[in-house]
């Protein structure tokens, strides 16, 4: 708790002042900011500007600008231009593009940033320059790190929304390093890769990249509430499980978290103490809807025949897709059991947690001669069809 207070108190103090005025001294003017930040600007910016100067009779098209200057595809530009169609000249987007080029974003990177958040091109250049300077001098990020932050899922959106420096002053020490922000995007109903069953229960800040657009813009007061909610789960304050819980709680609110705990306790017929132990292993389950949890528990207990205690010891089972993983793999196991090709003691979790490639090799290809058509049947179940046992 003391460690968390050390992270939160400077953040709360920082929130009392609306903007870092000292950073303005680092940026003499809008023109100077654009000039100093564009040491290595995108060459398309100059060539396109020159072309516009010779064709002043042609009306400015934001859609064309997104393609010719920002590098978006025609389809991306058509979608993005709807958010910036009010821009009638290239003056503002040129200034923003020059500043962001100065942090080392390549042409492809800039295209990815503006495709993710085209409204960045509408932001006032002084605000963009101040936010870049704040990340450099207040948080201590290098230009490559700033570029990485913008390329994170939600990073461009967060940068457009607010100055992320005060938020990062909390998250970076809390997670342990800046690199911990750059996590693989997690899907709530994902198919985990080889041997990820264990890793999924021990990875830091689940959904950090998925929810960074929201989390990185939370106010210090909101962050404090999130940490307090996570503390109620009674996890060790410095553990990865607690950081996982913070990530899960950040996607919800206290009422939803309490409702999920009550629902899981009732559905699995366990005490809150035993449930907390399961949540410590896999806090991601708190982010699943009650309908998804209900259908998975009903399937695992009623169809597969698992005991609630078995699920509580392996709560990551509840994060797998019912339609794309649990149901298809159970179908294959049922076929092999009926044919007497595997023992009844086969561990269902062991069948589920391996990668699709390993599962197919071990349970389908290995029995190809004994059970012709099993591969096709498995593919059919994965696509939503449920054939009779082959």
From TrEMBL:
Keywords: Transcription, Transcription regulation, Transcription termination, Transit peptide. Residues 32-53 are annotated as: Disordered. GO terms for molecular function: nucleic acid binding. The keyword Transcription regulation applies. GO terms for biological process: DNA-templated transcription termination. InterPro entries: MTERF (IPR003690), MTERF_sf (IPR038538). Belongs to the mTERF family. PANTHER family: CGI-12 PROTEIN-RELATED (PTHR13068), OS11G0246100 PROTEIN (PTHR13068:SF102). This is Uncharacterized protein. It comes from Oryza rufipogon.
């Amino acid at each position: 708790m003391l460690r968390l207070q050390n992270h939160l108190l400077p953040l709360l103090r920082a929130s009392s002042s609306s903007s870092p005025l000292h950073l303005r001294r680092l940026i003499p003017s809008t023109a100077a900011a654009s000039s100093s930040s564009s040491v290595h600007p995108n060459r398309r910016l100059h060539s396109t500007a020159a072309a516009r100067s010779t064709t002043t009779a042609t009306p400015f098209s934001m859609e064309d600008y997104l393609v010719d200057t920002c590098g978006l595809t025609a389809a991306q530009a058509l979608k993005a231009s709807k958010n910036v169609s009010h821009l009638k000249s290239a003056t503002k987007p040129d200034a923003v593009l020059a500043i962001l080029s100065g942090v080392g974003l390549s042409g492809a990177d800039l295209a990815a940033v503006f495709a993710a958040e085209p409204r960045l091109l509408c932001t006032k250049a002084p605000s963009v320059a101040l936010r870049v300077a704040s990340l450099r001098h207040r948080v201590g990020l290098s230009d490559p790190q700033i570029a990485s932050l913008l390329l994170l899922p939600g990073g461009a959106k967060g940068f457009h929304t607010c100055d992320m420096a005060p938020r990062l002053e909390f998250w970076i020490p809390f997670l342990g390093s800046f690199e911990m922000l750059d996590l693989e995007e997690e899907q709530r109903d994902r198919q985990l890769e080889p041997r990820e069953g264990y890793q999924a229960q021990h990875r830091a800040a689940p959904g950090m990249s998925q929810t960074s657009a929201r989390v990185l813009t939370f106010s210090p007061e909101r962050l404090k509430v999130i940490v307090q909610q996570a503390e109620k789960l009674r996890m060790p304050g410095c553990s990865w499980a607690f950081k996982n819980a913070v990530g899960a709680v950040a996607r919800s609110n206290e009422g939803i978290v309490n409702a999920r705990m009550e629902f899981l306790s009732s559905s699995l017929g366990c005490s809150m103490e035993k449930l907390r132990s399961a949540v410590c292993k896999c806090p991601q389950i708190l982010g699943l809807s009650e309908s998804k949890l209900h259908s998975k528990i009903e399937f695992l207990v009623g169809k597969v025949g698992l005991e609630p205690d078995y699920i509580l010891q392996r709560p990551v089972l509840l994060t797998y897709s019912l339609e794309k993983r649990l149901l298809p793999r159970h179908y294959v196991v049922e076929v092999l059991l009926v044919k007497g090709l595997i023992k009844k003691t086969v561990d269902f979790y062991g069948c589920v947690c391996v990668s699709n490639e390993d599962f197919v090799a071990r349970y389908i290809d290995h029995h190809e001669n004994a059970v012709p058509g099993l591969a096709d049947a498995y593919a059919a179940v994965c696509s939503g069809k449920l054939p009779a046992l082959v």
